[in-house]
Every structure is written in C-alpha cells, then in structure tokens.
Design brief:
Chain lengths: 499, 499
Amino acid sequence: MTLDYAGATTKYEPTLGLEVHVELNTKSKMFCGCATEFGAEPNTQTCPVCLGLPGALPVVNAKAIESSILIGLALNCSIAPYSRFARKNYFYPDMPKNFQTSQFDEPICVNGYLDVEIQTDEGQKVFRVEIERVHMEEDTGKSLHVGGATGRIHGAEYSLLDYNRAGIPLVEIVTRIVPGTGKYAPQVARAYVTELRDILRSLGVSDVKMEQGSLRCDANVSLAPIGSGKLGTRSETKNVNSLRSVERAVSGEIERQANRLEAGERIIQETRHFLEESGQTRPGRSKEQAEDYRYFPEPDLVPVTPDAKWIEELGTRIPEKPSVRRKRLQTQWNCPDKEMESLVNAELLDVVEETIKLGAEPTRARTWWLGEISRLANEKEVAPTSLITSKDVAEIIALIVGGDLTDKLARQVVEGVISGEGSASSVIEKRGLKVVSDDSALMTAIEAAIAAQPDTAERIRGGNIPAAGALIGAVMKATGGAADAAKVRELLLKHLGRG
Amino acid sequence: MTTIYSSATEMAQALSKKDISSVELTKLHLDRIEAVDGKVHAFLHVDSQGAIAQATAVDAKRAAGEKLSPLAGVPLALKDILAQKGVPTTAGSKILQDWRPPYDSTVVAKLKAAGVVILGKTNMDEFAMGSSTENSAYGTTQNPWDLTRTPGGSSGGSAAAVAAFQAPLAIGTDTGGSIRQPAALTGIVGVKPTYGGVSRYGVVAYSSSLDQVGPFARTVLDTALLHEAIAGHDERDSTSINAPVPQVVAAAKKLDVKGMKIGVIKELGGTGFQAGVSQRFNEALELLVAGGAQIVEVSCPNFEYALAAYYLIAPSEASSNLARFDSMRYGLRVGDDGSKGAEEVMSITREAGFGKEVKRRIILGTYALSSGYYDAYYGSAQKVRTLVKQDFEKAFAQVDVLVSPVTPTTAFKIGEKSNDPVAMYLSDIATIPVNMAGIGGMSLPVGLAPEDGLPVGMQIMAPVMQDDRFYRVGGALEAALLSKWGKPLLSNIPELGGM
C-alpha cells in the first residue's frame, strides 16, 4: 500500500533545508575582468584567470562583495569584519583550476533570518526561516555531454565545454534546518524562495531568473516519525528550476521518502535530480562516501575586511521589504489580488508606481501597463518598460481623463511613442491626434455624412434613432477617430430635429 | 671595451654612450650561449629572433632620442616559470611541453617596458621543486665552476647563465631558497625580495604563499637595478604590497655599514656546515666589523621546525596549484584514443607528465590537507610559520639585518643527493625560514671554500619591505671583498672555451 501526500504527512514530520545559489549581476566576473553577459558565444568571455592558465591569479570583485553584504543585511545577518576564501579541491573538466574558489568556514554573512507568510488551514501564518550563512564563490563552466542517453558524462561520446560561466560570481544562501512546517513544508519552501527572489530583485543584485539558472535552489528534505524528536537522513534535490518546482520537488520527496520508510527501507544520503515532467526525483551521485574537498585558505587572495562605515552606509540602501511594499501598494491603489499578482509577475510594480507618482490615476495606470503596453511588448518579445516611459504613460492618461484623448487615440499615441516618433506630446502634435471638440468642424463632417447618405438621414428624421449609428460611424471615420462619438451623436440628432 | 664579462651597469653605460648597440651586445651573448651552453645547459629555449627584435627596437628608440630606462638594451635570462607571450614556458615539466602562453607575466611586461632584452628561458627543477635542476624534465644544468656539480636550484639555469657570462642578468623565483641557494653555489648575487614586493602574476605557481620572483646578477648594484625594474604593486596580484619600492639602488651605492647592527643567527651555522663555508662566512663578518658594523649573536629557536613545516605547506599548496594540469585546456594530453573518459585521460596524462619529485610532493600535500589530518599537518605547519615569523621579529628588534651562510655546503656533485630527498631538502635549511616569514634575503658571494675551491655565499636578511638594508650591507661587503681580493670572484671561474 502506498502513502499519498496527506498520508505521508500524517505519519511523518518533514524537515527542510534550502540552499539557494544566486548569480550576481556584476558586469565582470568574481576574480577577473571578463564580461558576464548571458547567452554569449561559447568561450568568448574568458581570459587567463577564468581559464585557469598557469600563472594567472584571482582578484576579488569589489562589487560582488558589496552585493553580498547587501544580501546579508537584507536577510538580517551579521556581516563578518574578516572573512576568507578557501579552495575546494576536486577534479572536473568544467572547473578550469580543478578547485573552486569559495568561502568555506569563514563566510561573509552569518546568522540571519527571513520570515515568510503562507495560507494555512488556520489562516495566514508566518514561518521564520533561519539563515546560517551567506557566502561568495565562483561558478563553474558548463558541460554539454553529447551522445549519451541521459545527457550525463557517463556514456557520452564527447563533451563540449563552455567557460563563459566559469568565474561568474555566485552567492550561496544556506538556511539552517527548518523544523515544524509539517504538511506545509512545500509551501514554506516555495514562499521562502519567492520572498528571497523578490528581495534579491529589489536589491538589484541579480537577475534572479530561475529558468536561466541565475537563481538555483537545492532542497534538502528529511523525514522522521511525528513526535520522535529525531532528524532523519536527508536527500538533496537539485535541478529545481522554477518556484512551482520547488514546491513540487519537496512534496514529491516527502512522498517518496515516506513510502521508502513504510517499506522498511532506509533513506540514502544522496543528491537527487528533479524531473520537471513527472514531478519525481531520480538519484544523482551518492554522498555516502563523503567527498574530501581538502579545503584550505586560498593563498592567492587576501582576507575580505569590509570597513564598518561602509557596511553602515550599505545598510541605508536596503529597500523596503518587497512583501511589505506589495501590501502597502495594494491598499493604496485599492487593487484586486489577481491584478496585483499579475503586476508582480510581469515585474511592473516599479513602473506602475512611478506612473502613479507622476499623477496618473491608479486604475488606469495598471490597466495601460498590463493591457495595451504589455500586449505590444509581448508581440515584440521585449520588456514593457523598454517600450515607453512612465512619464509618457502618465501624460497620456492625464489627457484621457481631461477628455483630450479617446482610448482609441491614446492607443495611437502609445504606438507612435513606441515606434520612435518622440514623446507622447510630440506624437500628438505631429499626428494631430487631439479630440476634435470644435463644433463647427464636426458639423462640416456631419453635413458631409448626411449628404452622402440622404436615405439614412431621412429615416432618422422619421424617428428611426438607431439608424444614427451608420452616420456617426461615417463621421468618426472621416475624423480619423479624433472625435468624441457622444458629441457627434448629440450634434447629429439635434441637426436632424431629433435632439 | 664592453664584453660579456662587463657588469650590467657597465653595459648600460656603454649603451647610453652608444659605444655599443643593443643588437651588438645581444649578439655577443647569443654567441656565448651558442659556444658554451652545450656544456652548461642553462637554457631550455633561446629566443634569438625575439631578442634581436627587442634589441633593434631599443636601439631605434635610443637613436630617436627617447628617454630610456637604466637597463634598456641589456640582455637577460628568464626562468622558464614566468609566462612570456608566444614563447615556450614549461616550468621544467613535460606536462607543459610546447605550451606558449597567450599573455605576459607582469614581470615580463615590466622587463619589456624597461627595454630589457630577453634572451631565452632557463632550466629549472620541475615546477621549482628541487635544489639542483636535476628534477628538470629536460636535463640537468651544470655548474660552470665544475661541470660535474650542480648549480643548485630550482633557478639553477638562471644562476649558471649569469655565472657563465651567458647573460649579465637573470630572473629566478624563490620558494624555499631557489634564488639564494643557486646564487651561492655559482658565486653570483641573488635576491629573494620581500613577499609581495614583486608581482607573481604570470608565474606558474608552486606554493602561492611562499613563491617570490627575484633578480640575479654578478654585482650588488646590477642586482639592485634589476630589482627596481621588476618590483612594485600589481593590481593583478592581490598579495602584492601596495607601498613604494624600497630604494635598493641607492642603498647598493652607499658602501657604508658604519653603526649597523648585524645579527648572526646561532642556529644557522656550526655543526652540519662545511668548514670552508663557515671560514669564509666568518672572514666576511670580520670585514663588516672592520667597516664599522657591530656583530650580535641572536637566537631563532623555532627555525629547527621550519624545514618540516615548509614540507607540509609547500606541497599542500602545490597539490592544489598543480591540479589544473589535466590535459583539458592546454599542455600535454596522453591516452586520448577516443575510448577513454575525461577522468581517465586526466589520470594518464598526469602520470606521464609529472616527474617523480612533483608526484612525491602532490601526494604529500594531498595527504596533509585530507580531512582528519589537516589540523595535525597543515594546521601545525601554519603555527610553526607564525613562530618563525615571531623569531624574526624578536631578532630584528635587536639588529638591522641578520646573516647566515646560504647553504651548509658548496656545490654538490650531480647525482650525489638525487636519490636522497631529505639530504636534498637540507640544502635549503638556512633559506627556508625567510620564505616562511615573507621577508627578503640576499645571497652574496664571500669567497671560495679552501677545501674545494667552490663559491660560498652569505645570506643577508632584512625585515618586510626593508630590502634596501641587505643591499646596503651587500654593497659595502662586496666592495670590501673586492679590495681584499683585487679582482672579482668570478674571474677565478674556469674557462669554458668558446670566447
């Protein structure tokens, strides 16, 4: 008999531990001046240092230290006045030096926490996730194993190596074990990674794109019978590439382990790989035989000793916590949950806030960014914020509210701005897009429409009011949409003696 | 008239007076190499074309009236451990056979900028591991004083080249005595600068926390000129000291030791030191006293542990530094017949590419860093290092410089110690403490041992970044010795034929 998730969590208490690797968005690598751009031609962003050529030496990227300290401060950590890098020695072809330069027993940030809120059966509940350490390290290169069935090195015909990623600054954020989450372990894990991602984004230190690997999560899960007060053997699940996968990987692992324990088998301490399609994990390399990395202090680097004043200064740059800010803005804007979620997911919170600060009415600001502008951005496969400025959008909204632009005209203005015709006001001027409110100009168009469709005009005169639609349409067409349809209707009916 | 027997200073003067061109001077040395290197085997690679090209460029600049550095146009021999763009750089190892670096080490860049003409790359113990050049994968260098003896090592090729008048200047590296010991054994001047005084960028690493680049020459002033040309802060080397270079040229010209306090280290002399070595050392002390210096005996009780600690620290760092030689990106590749995996090819290549002593040290270091042994070996060695440093600090509180013989014996026979690693290691007993403490030291020739007619060196040591002190003492002592002998020590060297 197999246990389902509910059954598993009725019998067993899960314990979580999360390790998140974040690629910093510094312009240059951790220990050399090479560019860090994602997606460049393989091996074009390399130099003697990140290729580990004989004689090359590392130099620590000061910006990476700054980012790490910002992360530590945002996660309520203590910043070490003295920290060091060490060498983690192991052989692998994508590691140019066959050691990874990484902080080990002397990390830059220690002892922090992050509170996350989730929905439970008893309502919203806050879980505190304690942070053990935040440390800096360098990324490895990327291997592509060709010809094997599994894409793994064993059984492959040959491997391709790309060292562009080698030496990209990484920050690893390691939690202490998170006990007491019970059946909510998957949601807590997801909420933690989500909140962490949002914090990192608000700090501007990383692109935090899980699908591109700039944020990677390893989920440690162990089970123990409820009430036993013990800790079980853990597994570590890698390859968790989305927030949803974090949740699925943890619940899948809880189920798998529970069923093994039920069957009287033991849990093997191992690395497992998350399989996106099935939501299952498969075993990776076993950690039973603990690898000896022969860590020792990196003799090519001097210790990192950030100045206390600098740390203090960085502390003043920590922005409002994203979850707090979201709640604040949602209340201020009176925004429905669903729409707020859309704004957050589309990364439009900042620009909408700016637009509103520039005087735009909140509902219209949200609608324009989420609607028309996002639609055009999707077509062009770019970010909405790259198309138009908050200033232009605020100006357009003000003109709509003031009756100078119709929605239809406003869309033309937006399109003009996007196609590079200049700011909103210059597009309006160049294209002559203001609403035609001049009665005499409208009357000319109305008379022309009547002259063109005398039969229709006659029917209206005879009381067939709905027939007016055809003439209104003709006027709108003649004015290029620059007329207020209600105004046209009013003038037309009046002219035909039906006003 | 300028000849290969002139000092670098004399050569530089003749060049600036246009008595000789750099091309002519370079050709004199290339001819000398051609004539005698079959016997000495100081060079692994003679870059005739490159040297003539450099010399031609300097001559053109001089003809154009450009302001040139003091050593512009003077030839130099470069230890094969420093990366020189496009020129084979093997570090004496088969595993780097045919590797041509795509970049210049900082020292090479500085030499090129100073217009120093690089004649070629000199022989050395593989990866600087050894005291005789017998560990070179490319044959042993012979001592020009007696071709059946070693010139010392690891920078034996550089020392022999200078002693055999193949070059007036040479660059070596010193991790445990690899400049000072061969300088002593060949009767020339050699300096290991303060750790961090000269950039290590582009120097194939043996033991990062101990390696230091330094100059060889036939006079103290020549050595000082070269020292100033290569020294100074380098932002590519985090461990390089950001402070002004000590005024070593001015110090070398002072020729005065009046009132200086000179400490003789009790533990580095007496038992275990060859009689002729002690005799010449003591005679030199008398000359210093005659010059107005005061001799004080000091004790450094922890030096007796320095050798053992060195043979834990250096191999530990080496085991990690040499991990990059895995055939994946450059250098030798053996066994890649399409049937083997990367790990297997790495293993076969390393087995074939490294020599016996290098393997011995990799194994030693790997063991010393292993979990469970780290504290007892690497950890204890670091404590000894601190104690050695403290011994020096206490000693320097009493005296300006410290002195000792450089080596317990004069040059030993080729093959004499090659099967007894510990006996070989003992030849560095007096030089290793200097590296452990990160201070600088000079080897100055003080005569020939009466029993074998071979050169004896005195080691002069000064505190961190006080390298000018040993140049001052060395310059004064050299002048006193010269007036005592009436001619330079090297005029006693047997004629090797050729010119």
